[in-house]
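Appendix B, example 12.
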Amino acid sequence: MYNREALDAYYRSSWACRRVVEIMPRLMCRKWGALTLGGEGNTDAIAHIEKRHGDLKVRANFKKAQTWANLYGRAYILMVVNDNEDYSQSLENGAEIENLVVLDRWKLYPEQGITGWDLLNPEYYTLASSQTSKLILPNTYTFGQKIHKSRVLIFSGHDLPDTEKQRNNGNEASVLESFVDVWKRFFVGYAGLSRLLVDFDIFVHSVAFTSS
C-alpha cells in the first residue's frame, strides 16, 4: 500500500500513471447525460435543472472527484446547502444546493472512534481542520463537528474486500496500486533489453584481400 506522498509522486512524474488515473473519469464525463422528466413535457423544469448543473459545475466536479478517488482510493463531494441546519443533521428535503466541494480521503474521513463494520457505512464524517477556513458554510463550522452522511457524495477507487477496507479506514484502493509494480517491472525489462541491444550493436570492419 502506497502513502499519499508516493501516489502524488507517481501521478506527477509519470504520464502512464496519470493516464491510468484519469482515463475513466474523462470517459465517464465526456458525454454527459440528457435529463428527461416525464417525456418531452416540463421543459421549464428541465432548463432550470440544467442551468443549476452548470452553475454548480456538476460535470467538472464529478470528474475531479472520481479522479481523486482513482488516485487515493476514496474522494467525496460535500454538498453545501442553504438549510441553515447544523451539518450533523440529515439533509432536509427541498434544500437548495449552493456549492459542491470536492474533498479527498485526507480532507474528509469517517468520524473518529468508530471501528469495524461501522467504517464501511459511517453515519457521520469529520472535516479536516485545514479545510475549515476554505469553505463557506451557512453555520459556524469548527474542526470536530460532524457532517451527516446525507450531505456527502462518495466516489470510490478500486474496490476491496470488506475486511481490507476496514484496515484502510473504510477506503478503497488506489488504481495505481495494481499498476505501479507491473509498470516498474516493464521499465526494468525495457532498460535491460536496451542494454542488450547496445551490446549486439558491434561494427565489423573487413579488409578485402586479393589473391595472387
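Residues 59 and 185 are 36 Å apart (CA to CA). The longest strand covers residues 74-81.
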